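S1.2 Input.
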Amino acid sequence: MLQTLFRDVRYALRSLRTRPGFTVAAVLTLALGIGANTSLFSVVNGLLLRPLPVKEPGSLVAMVLFDEAGDYARQPVPFPLYRQYVADAGPAFSELFAYATTHARINSGGRLRPGSVQVVSGNFFDALGVPPQLGRAFMPDEDAAPMRHAVAVISDGLWKAQFRGDAGVVGRTVVLEDYSGKGLAFVVVGVAPANFRGLEPTAPDVWVPSMMHAHFKEGGPIHFRLMGRLKPGVSRQAATLALQRVTDAIGRDYGGRPMEGYEADAKVERGLRAQLKPAGRGALGAVPLVRNRVEGGRAVLGRGRHGAADRLRQHRQPAAGAGGAAAAGVRRTPLARRRAGGPAAPGAGRERGGGTRRRCREARRGTLGQ
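S1.3 Output.
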């Protein structure tokens, strides 16, 4: 067996050496395929598989809204609606918090760079069980009044890149400019742990209290996402009903029109359904992606053990037919007819060499006989 293997390897190497063009193409194809699959796995692992580096990730749930057709609803949840959910549905949760991602220009020490900012509820870090490596998280009163407490927790990356890992960074300021150029100085109160990159695929540079969201509205709408943990003794169904009551009330109060002061946001839809989804693995930004992929998977796998095989056979048949038609078209070209020993098209030259014609006929008979 080893002799056969060595002989095959020598033959393959000799063939590749005599066909350098094919060798380069094959190596590039393999490199691209391996690289693409590695990158895809890294994304899937980050989005779907890896547990979030937070306290008890398996108990985290996220509110997701669906429309009447059962599709994921791209309904924004601006600041007033987020506060309404927290006030009215909060008793069903031991911890209910929210966050929204926006962008700003970060100015620290005269260096200006674009950055990602997360506007979060005051209990964000405490609810996730993520204590800062330096300083502290937000205090409850720092998220109680609009535009009163300009404080910030910065990421480990920003701390090292902009402040060079200075242990005395707490108490220093970082200026966050909206895209109209208006800047506001935020006092750094803490530095997030190095392994905490937020709940979205893109890691934030800065976290600020939700009551400071008005400073960033010029950069575009700010849409919150709600997460939490159920209170002991409260079922997921009961918590979902509490969220649904708030959703119905919002639809009655604002349905069909944008909210006052938030005209840049989409209109509030009626008839939405609130659901709670597990959110302890991967980034919450993947929730719609997960649902779409799951629905597609059900279409293939939902018909029993052999559903995937049935679907593969369904796709293989037209592909095989297309391949056969293409092969037949190739065989009917003048060059193919000459090589197969058949009648050439008018004006075509004669095939030289009976051995070549014989080999082609034998190859064709062997191919058609399979």
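S1.4 Remarks. Residues 44-49, 283-353 have pLDDT under 50 and may be disordered.
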